[in-house]
């Protein structure tokens, strides 16, 4: 029995919360970026969550396989060739069981048997027959495929198929005779001859555009206006061919029944694993093409540490260099991220979330180094619109989500909040956020919150005990003024006390808007300036 390369039985708990996180953190968009047009690869949240795992050994095994494959030249092309071969094998095996006509079933079984032999040989010689392989699962599969190719059953199957080629060739061209009776029109239609060449019959009559002629099609000879009306004729013609080929088909069926095709279904099951690993390889190759470094995340105890992390999704789509940030976060701690508009707060939040989720897929991460402990559940709360059916307000939806988080998150969870409660008044929002963060810290839940409400920090500084304060951090995005005194975002994050300004004045100033231009009366302007100064220096909770 062939062993799977990816164990999806060790998936994460609370898949619904992970699915929300996949969407909110835009991990699905990363996977979609790595998928080429026409590929049968699912990039939705459900498909991604199936491969997420919190099992350290499973993560290590996956990243080890990617590390092996990344060292092999033209590896993506080799894996793609195997995927296409196994996909064809699966199609033929299914058609050999489901086709309505016996001749189609026999021909599909013939093709499937030949493709099975091709796939085993291709895996052995082109993909797994490499000296670079060191990962346990690839070495194990290499041993299994080699043993399969050397087995008595496989050798007997190969000899039987080779011998059958001497007397069985697949039909390519079918010649149809039309018998007319003078004055009475068409009397009968019969198969006149069949050319035997190694090309499969997909269908004798197929839909085609006007004026086109397709191989193996009678459409040009029998111009039925609607394709469905030709089904009875096609069935009749197939019966004619089966009648002419009755002895050959009977012999072919007898020979095909002798085939062992050992662990054919196990071979087909590997296709999902190869598609997954190819996705991980594409992430490595795409980042390298952008000139970005990648690391194989290491598992271990201690804090979450990521050195020179680049925003993963932006790394794949941006033509400009991506700013790097370092991440150090004790598990069980909570960080509040503040800063000016468009200064990179949400990008930083998503960067950390994407890196953690990619690591739990077993993928590499665009960073110099990463050390992490996998979490069993991940929760997100991103500000959004009202629901489509207008049953709940934006505030109502957020309250529903936070209720679930408060009920289900534990010390093995990680939470990401992006500007929560912006639809209610600031005092109420700050009070609720403070209450949540106190709960998270007391429960040992790791989390990040992006907010413009810097009073959350000042309130927590007064609320938390000295011991709990060690589990609370303030991260701020950095801005600088250039020579023209215009505010410039650096997209870097540092640990420091948040500024008490809302940055609105700076943003307005960058657009040439000032109190001097808005208020002409000197007395009123002075009053506004005093108010602005007082607000920037005092907290709502001071």
TrEMBL record:
Pfam families tied to this protein: MutS_V
Entry keyword set: ATP-binding, DNA-binding, Nucleotide-binding
Coiled coil residues, start to end: none
Key word Iron present: no
InterPro entries xrefs: DNA_mismatch_repair_MutS_C (IPR000432), MutS (IPR045076), P-loop_NTPase (IPR027417)
Keyword Membrane: no
PANTHER family: DNA MISMATCH REPAIR PROTEIN MSH1, MITOCHONDRIAL, DNA MISMATCH REPAIR PROTEIN MUTS FAMILY MEMBER
Protein name: DNA mismatch repair proteins mutS family domain-containing protein
Organism: Bianquea renquensis
